[in-house]
Amino acid sequence: MQARFYIAPRFQQVKYNITTGDNVTVNGQNSTTARGGESLTFTAVPPAGQNVTGWTVNGEAVAGNGNTLTWTVENGCLTKPNVTAYHVEAQFSAGEYKVTYSQPAGGTLSASVAAGTRVNGGTKVAFTAEPDKGYEIDEWTVNGHSVANSSSTYTLNVTENSTVAVTFKAMVPVSAVRDGRNGNIAITANGKTITDGYVSSGSDVTFTITPENTDDMVQAWQVNGSTVAEMTDTADAPLTYTVKNVTAKTEVSATLIERPTYTITVTSEGSGTASAEPASVKRGGSTTVTAVPSSNSYYLKEWSVNGGTAQAASGNTLALTEIRRGYDGQGRI
Fold first, then answer.
1. Measured between alpha carbons, how far is 35 from 290 in angstroms, rounded to an integer?
2. Which residue, among 12, 28, 13, 11, has the nearest Cα to 74 in the 3D structure?
3. Distance separating alpha carbons of residues 333 and 312, to the nearest angstrom
4. What whole-number distance in Å separates Cα of residue 157 and Cα of residue 160?
5. CA atoms of 181 and 193, how far apart (whole Å)
6. Which tens digit of pLDDT belongs to each residue from 178-233?
7. Cβ density class 73-94: b for 16+ within 10 Å, e for less
8. How does DSSP classify residue 37?
9. Which residues pair with 311 in a beta bridge?
10. What is the DSSP letter of 142?
11. 78 in helix, strand or coil?
């Protein structure tokens, strides 16, 4: 009996390794495998400021559609020499873009290129804003959109036709005048010493006076002609004064005087004597008043200061501290 064999061969197309260049993916991945005749879609994402100018497969140019290439895998095994893998790349070019800017009111704007110049994509253009006296930078914009920058310089990475603009806003003038004794007044706002006489609107502005003679003191502060702080019988005027929320021209003055000297006058009622040591005191100083009965048969009953309510005596001395006016004291014995 003769045996029969049935053989059924099965054939399958060869798979090819497909890889991509920088900034290119195939069906969303960096590589894949595919058989001859299979259609693949490649997508390029150009670097900032650049465009796709062409496509290649294994170094040979192929026609794409901008950032996309649809390509049918060739049967490389049928060619000589045989091809077992394909590498797809996109070519990029920076392209040229126009940079424009103009001169603003209240200052000047300059750049590292002339206005209207065309530059390659990815070029960095440096801008410098110079406010006129009494002005400060308000806002930078690129193509009408505000950018987060309060500095006097701005660097643009050019990726499209770009118009750069800066606006300035008026500042508020402030000044300080010292009257009376010699000294200096410093002006500070927003953590900075003000030397040009202008501050940002809405600032809190602090004026600090330093007397040339350390024994001098402030008699009064005035803001735009109105007294806002002054020395009293109970407190000294401060060496520093702050004007809050300055939105209009502000003139501040401080009057310096020599620290007053007060005479302490002491009288006694009854049989005994009283005196102050020292009897002459600079404002803010101290003295001690001592009462001495004429004999042991007398004692100090009470004190009266500047005609005020009598206060019971505790011992024969009375301490007066932080003296800010003249004193007329009386001890009743």
1. 117
2. 13
3. 11
4. 9
5. 23
6. 999 999 999 999 999 999 999 999 999 999 999 999 999 999 999 999 999 999 98
7. beebeeeeeebeebebbbbbeb
8. T
9. 303
10. E
11. helix
Residues of the chain with pLDDT under 50: none
Cβ atoms of 252 and 222 within 8 Å: the answer is yes
Residue 91 carries which side chain, given as an amino acid letter? Q
pLDDT of residue 10: 63
pLDDT per residue as tens digits for the range 229-238: 999 988 999 9
**CA dihedral of residues 32, 33, 34, 39 (deg, nearest 10):** 10
Both structure tokens of 108: 């000047």
- Using CA atoms, how far apart are residues 124 and 132, in angstroms rounded to an integer? 26
* Residue matched to tokens 């993916």: 25
Can you give the pLDDT at residue 94?
78
Cα distance between residue 237 and residue 223, in whole Å: 14
Place of tokens 């004999």: 295
Residue found by looking up tokens 């559609």 in the block: 65
Give the separation between CA 63 and CA 312, rounded to whole angstroms: 111
DSSP 8-state symbol, 263:
E
Please name the amino acid found at residue 88.
V
**What was the pLDDT predicted at 266?**
87
Residue-level pLDDT at 3: 65
What pTM does this model have?
A: 0.67
CA distance 108 to 174: 24
The reported pLDDT for the residue numbered 190 is 95
